[in-house]
Prior knowledge:
Layout: H1 2-20, H2 25-79, H3 84-105, H4 119-133, H5 137-144, H6 158-170, H7 174-184, H8 194-206, H9 210-224, H10 227-237, H11 251-254
Amino acid sequence: MYALFLSILITAAAVTASVTFDLHISWTIIFGFLGFFGSNLLISLLMRKKLTGVQNELQEMMTAAQGKMNRKIQQQQNRGGANPAALKKQMEVQQAEVMKQALEHTVNFEPFKKWNLTMGRQISTMRLQYLYHLKRWQEVDDILAIKKLLSKPLMMEPTMVAIKMARRYEKGDLAAAEKVFKKHVRFMRGSRGSLLYGTLSWMLVKQGKLDEARSLLAEGKEKTKNQTLIKNWEHLANDRAKKFSNAGLGEEWYALYLEPQPLPKQQRVRQGRGQGAF
């Protein structure tokens, strides 16, 4: 906002100076062009440098926290005998703490809204991700309900679209979830649409709409070539709906919290030679 205003002022000043000194019209146009685009470029470069600094702080904070968490988990696994359920719970608590810190850090992006027209949408997108991970559903729904063009979250990534679909479904509105799917899936080229096809087909199966799920998967497997979609289509085509599983979609799928992630298998600690039991 401020960048555009300053660029217009500088352009006006350049044009006014050209007219005052009675320069040829071509020079007036050139100076006006340079005044607008040159100042805009300079302001963008300065803001980008500051913005990159804030982004790096967030990335470093999350990387450090993730590394600390991974080391703790590895230490427990190396000791042996770790309870999978307790280990999973500990991971969830630590991940939630990381997300809380990241959510708080988004405040540091607020000043850039005055200089970048899309920053408001980027901030909403980040907050939507963190709040969803924290399962703060009302706040998630509040962000998804934003109508202002410069404030509503961006729906350019499959995860964001899947989050919106999941919230519609969890509130008992399958039709709304399908509407979100149809609106955005056409922009997801190739394998980028896998999560969306997998999510909606799961919803349809859960609602007993097996024929619709099979037709959707038939379309999805051709467009994405995703093996999980292919296997699920085969299961439905051969009356094996109970074998339907989106586990092959990995963390992206389980991060939607539509179904619980299986507990990791407990590793047995083998005794080496010469190590006897006492």
